[in-house]
């Protein structure tokens, strides 16, 4: 199934609105169409081209079985990123990005294993004889770790790609990915630097509708069944 998006869909989602002119990053100039009421307006032809190219890369990554880590910690992105990532079976970070998630990955994995071990022990009843206070402390530890690491428990190795909503906000994640050699893809607004992203998608990263549109297209790409599978 061919994945497509029209200029009209991008326009309706508000993908063309950038930030105030005074907040722009000059490196975004190639993707800017003009200004309107003191706000930069994206060239949606270029936005569409970049988005479709990024979706093709994702499709190829899926075929190769590569791991995509979704990052979207801003309020507008958190819910939809988590929903799509869980649906397509990908790891995700929707709470605060913890420094060292990529650059100190082995330590992160140790913490994740501790979380998994604690949850297993709780399920197995190993804390039944603990005091109420001790049980509460364990439950609080699990809850805290679950919020921070719950989305990456399946991440056994460094991901092959970071898909980021708002590369400016998630600058720590971007820097870590570049440092360890992990490819990046993401929505890049007019205040961002597209040159530090492997596959930048120039568009509005604050609109719920624009984020939802992109994530729905991503969902479609990553749930397309491979050809050749027998039909039942």
TrEMBL record:
One of its GO terms (molecular function) is structural constituent of ribosome. Keywords: Ribonucleoprotein, Ribosomal protein. CDD domains: RPS2. GO terms for cellular component: small ribosomal subunit. It comes from the Bacteria. One of its GO terms (biological process) is translation. PANTHER family: 30S RIBOSOMAL PROTEIN S2 PROKARYOTIC AND ORGANELLAR (PTHR12534), SMALL RIBOSOMAL SUBUNIT PROTEIN US2M (PTHR12534:SF0). Belongs to the universal ribosomal protein uS2 family. This is Small ribosomal subunit protein uS2. It comes from Candidatus Woesebacteria bacterium RIFCSPHIGHO2_01_FULL_39_28. The lineage of its organism: Bacteria, Candidatus Woeseibacteriota.
């Amino acid at each position: 199934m061919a994945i497509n998006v029209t200029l009209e869909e991008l326009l309706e989602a508000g993908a063309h609105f950038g930030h105030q002119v005074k907040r722009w990053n000059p490196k975004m100039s190639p993707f800017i169409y003009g200004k309107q009421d003191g706000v930069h307006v994206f060239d949606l032809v270029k936005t569409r081209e970049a988005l479709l190219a990024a979706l093709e890369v994702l499709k190829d990554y899926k075929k190769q079985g590569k791991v995509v880590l979704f990052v979207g910690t801003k309020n507008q992105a958190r819910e939809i990123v988590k929903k799509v990532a869980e649906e397509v079976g990908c790891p995700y970070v929707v709470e605060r990005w913890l420094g060292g998630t990529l650059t100190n990955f082995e330590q992160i994995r140790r913490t994740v294993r501790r979380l998994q071990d604690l949850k297993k022990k709780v399920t197995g009843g190993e804390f039944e004889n603990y005091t109420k206070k001790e049980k509460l402390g364990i439950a609080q530890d699990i809850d805290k770790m679950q919020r921070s690491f719950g989305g990456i428990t399946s991440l056994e190795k460094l991901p092959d790609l970071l898909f980021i909503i708002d590369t400016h906000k998630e600058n720590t994640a971007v820097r870590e990915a570049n440092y360890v050699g992990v490819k990046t893809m993401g929505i890049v607004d007019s205040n961002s630097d597209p040159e530090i992203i492997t596959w930048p998608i120039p568009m509005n990263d604050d609109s719920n509708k624009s984020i939802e549109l992109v994530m729905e297209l991503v969902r479609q790409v990553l749930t397309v069944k491979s050809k050749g599978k027998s039909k039942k």
